[in-house]
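Question (not urgent): is this output format expected?
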Amino acid sequence: MINRKTLTVLLSVLLTVLSSHAQQKPSKKALEAYEKAVYFYHLGEYDKTLDLSRQALKYTSKYLEPYMLTTEVYLLRDDKEAVLSTLQELVAADIEFPCYVFLTLAQTKQKMGDYEAVQNYLSQYESCPEKNAADEWNFELLKKNCEFALNAIENPVDFSPENMGAAVNSEFSEYLPCLTIDGKELFFTRLLPVEKPANNNKEQEDFFVSHWEKEKWSDAEPLGDPINSAYNEGSGTFSADGRILIFTACAIAAKVYGGDREGYGSCDLFYAVKEGDSWNNPQNMGGLINTALWESQPSLSADGKVLYFIRGDKTRNNSGDIYVSYLQQDNSWGKPIKLPDNINSRGKEQTVFIHPDDKTLYFSSNGHPGMGGFDIFMTTKLSDSTWSDPLNLGYPINTHRDENSIMISRDGKTAYFASERGDGFGKMDIYCFELPKFAQPKPVSFMRGKVFDREDLTPLQARVQLYNTETGMLIHSFYSDKINGEFLSVLSPNREYMVNVFAPDYLFYSDNFRMKEDQDTWEPYVKEIPLQRITVGKSAVLRNIFFDFDKVELKPESESELSILMEFLRWNSAVHIEVEGHTDNQGGEQYNFNLSEERAKAVRNYLISNGVDEIRLTYRGYGSSRPIAPNDTEEGRSVNRRTEFKITKE
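Got this back:
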């Protein structure tokens, strides 16, 4: 969720700088009015603060402190016009004032998009004789922002935002969109008024969800229990299969006002797991991820092993930084690490999003050169695991207003973001637009499947492992849903994969496939996976056992499959198997028999050499006598050239 607390700009210098500047000595009435104004300022009664500051100036017109206090109130209220008029009146009043006033004028004009005026005030700041060294970073950033903005306006990027419509947006604010990998569900945060608040807030954040049905988005509905509560929830991220939700909840507030979500700080990260169509009760992510600070806006990598999020920093006026945590072998999350200084600036970073390609990171920042306020940036993870310098997405995607909460579809073409625009339904709405080519990440696809019992079709929870066929590296290991047996995994195109599926009391399943090369038209790989119970006489094909043409030596890429077979035999220690070799019908009958038998023998010998008791293993070659596909096509012959194993004892 977005931290809306306005940061004060001038109060920190008010007590240390102002007393050194010559001004008209305030009258007794002016001083009394000003002291009362300060008192009500600290109580948060800003209307009284403004009235008393004006009284002080009526009694003594050249009185610096009331001007500065008035400016501070208008800054808190984000009333840019009032800030300008107050400070311009101060500049014209012939009073000595701190040089920082020119920076505040420049910042205010930047927020209004008047970059020529920004340049003018920066020039006056440069000429100011008593500059504070602590202000130099703000000055340099404003200068770079102005240069960037003027150039960006002269060279706009293509940008045609489209409102997501009344099914998604409402009269209230919608923001922080989150789209599932398959593009079928859109989750987002909505800020709603509360008629009978359970706490002191008159508004609260809840999750809503809309479904893509019949070529349009359905009317958004609350995500409901147990995720939504009477307290704030928002800024969620999903695992690729949509079964794990990590989100932000203000745990301390919930505890104070009678809720049951205990936490470590003002807002913490929680997670929930979906089984079938139901979510379990959310759990706090623990004391490594969460601290006494503010943790929010998570983004989970496609493989579920890397978590990015924002953590506040009280030493820098609650500024936010991007942190990353890695999933450990015991399924706990490791100690978060702050991303490097070329990503995290001296300003604020927020609304981080990692694309499913696991290499392209998007975020918002007001600390890198941009249009002013929060701009959207992107950075790419390089081959040495460092991050490229952030790239501003340009104008008019970014403007002098705040832009944030961007997310990108899996094909890398469509972006979603929240904005408050004149054509909306009210306050902030969610928009989509085609991302410029230079800002598009690499597209990804996904494999969707279902595991079930071959005989009675009962859905099964099974371990699914995906390997890169060329390297033999394990890419992703996960479990199908124990209620419906479904699973989903993100994959890259133009690559060959091996898949192994394993469940207790069942023969394991293996297959291999290649994602299509045409990145504009490829479709997800969909696979139904029936598993057979372990029964004498039943067999399973080992589709990821590989031999070179006319050879009997196992290729290295067979080792992943053989490791799964050895694991199966360890899990089922009473099982004996026969390794079977099969060929297509090309070549002579005796030749095929000999080749298939030698290949089956090679598999048996590999298992024995890796610790499997040879008494549990036999082998046999069948040549081309048992085809499972027609031999009149290369595809069919390829299927027939296979290794199987059959249960001979259980």
